[in-house]
Design a protein that fits this description.
Blueprint (H helix, E strand, L loop, with lengths): L16 E4 L10 E4 L10 H13 L9 E4 L3 H13 L3 E6 L4 H6 L6 E5 L8
Parallel strand pairs: 3-4, 4-5
Antiparallel strand pairs: 1-2
Helix pairs in contact: 1-2
């Protein structure tokens, strides 16, 4: 990525493709990989952007309305980035079984985290 951007969301997508020249014979397939390290967060950033922008565009998500997500992985972190820039409060619900490192990723710029108890832990 080159140039000045208006906010971190403009860095999502258009990720560089790198050709792997020594993986297949020259006369064979062209093998490309996406350099995801160029994205500001994780590979889920594009999905989070599509979820938020899609629901904003069709009117289901109003400006400043909260977003609630049940997740145990990188989706929460990506939604936190998207919601933080677009001023949507984010409430993440996650299992206590989620590793602490994964849970901490949900708290990037904005959002709160509720760690729930799965039914078998609750005695159900």
């Amino acid at each position: 990525m080159t140039g000045l951007v208006g906010n971190v969301l403009e860095c999502i997508g258009d990720t560089a493709l790198l050709r792997l020249r020594h993986v297949a014979p020259e006369s064979g397939a062209r093998v490309l990989i996406r350099v995801e390290s160029e994205n500001p967060g994780s590979m889920k950033d594009r999905m989070a952007r599509a979820m938020i922008e899609g629901t904003e565009a069709d009117g289901r998500l109003k400006p400043g309305a909260p977003v609630v997500e049940y997740t145990g992985g990188s989706t929460g972190g990506s939604l936190s980035l998207e919601c933080g820039v677009k001023a949507h409060p984010l409430h993440i619900v996650s299992s206590r079984c989620v590793r602490p490192r994964e849970a901490a990723a949900h708290d990037r710029p904005r959002g709160d985290l509720e760690r729930s108890c799965p039914a078998k832990e609750a005695g159900a």
